[in-house]
TrEMBL record:
Lineage, broadest ranks: Bacteria, Pseudomonadati, Verrucomicrobiota, Verrucomicrobiia, Verrucomicrobiales
Name this polypeptide is given: PEP-CTERM protein-sorting domain-containing protein
Keywords assigned: Signal
Signal peptide range: 1-24
Amino acid sequence: MKLSKISSICFVTAATGLSMMANAASVIPSFQNGLAGWTAGGDVTTGLHSGRHVAVLTTAHSTLESGADAINQSGFDPLVAGGDLEDFAGIAPGGLDRDVLEQATEGSVVKLGMTVAAGDVLKFDWNLRTHDSMGADYAFFMVNGVVVNTFSSALSVNVANGVFGNEAGFSTVSYEFTSAGPVEIVFGVVDMTDYVGTSTLMVGNVVVPEPSAALLGVLGIIPLFRRRRA
Ligand SMILES: [Ca+2]
Ligand SMILES: [Ca+2]
């Protein structure tokens, strides 16, 4: 009787944790369904690139850029830095500048709010493609208004097909949430120093993977079931 009671308490605790993890995983919409569920600012569309359904964010103005830079995809202009861009991303004006000489000028952002459990791991794939030649543009990943990862156009040195310029190639990033609760995740790309040399962020496969069988074992669910049934 005593063993059964302890087992039940442990199971409820573990199941609650799993429920929260599943919540975080289930609320991240795939870009296979367009931008449904996400909030976009600036030039943001979706597409299939390198086998991934991705959001495509550019720094291209719809009318003020020309030649290879004129690749605005949506008809919406990038948000202006020094106010609108930072307000939308949830960071203080100037928060995307490197320093007083290297300042963000305009950019595009996509963001999502969700609830996570402590220990949840977010994973995503991103690639930066660019025509940039001065003042390295960059893509960024933010959590609750803090930039936690960046991807510089200086890494985009590989010739790529299509209109988006040279690329670095896709890489996968993992980020662990250290505390439970509501969070806002933000992906963006900014022009730096000047407005030309369009840079494009492609981001996809944004997931919080479901807990594995190994994790279930660590949480004690499998052994506890066996003990209860014994
Ligand atoms: Ca630049
Ligand atoms: Ca631009």
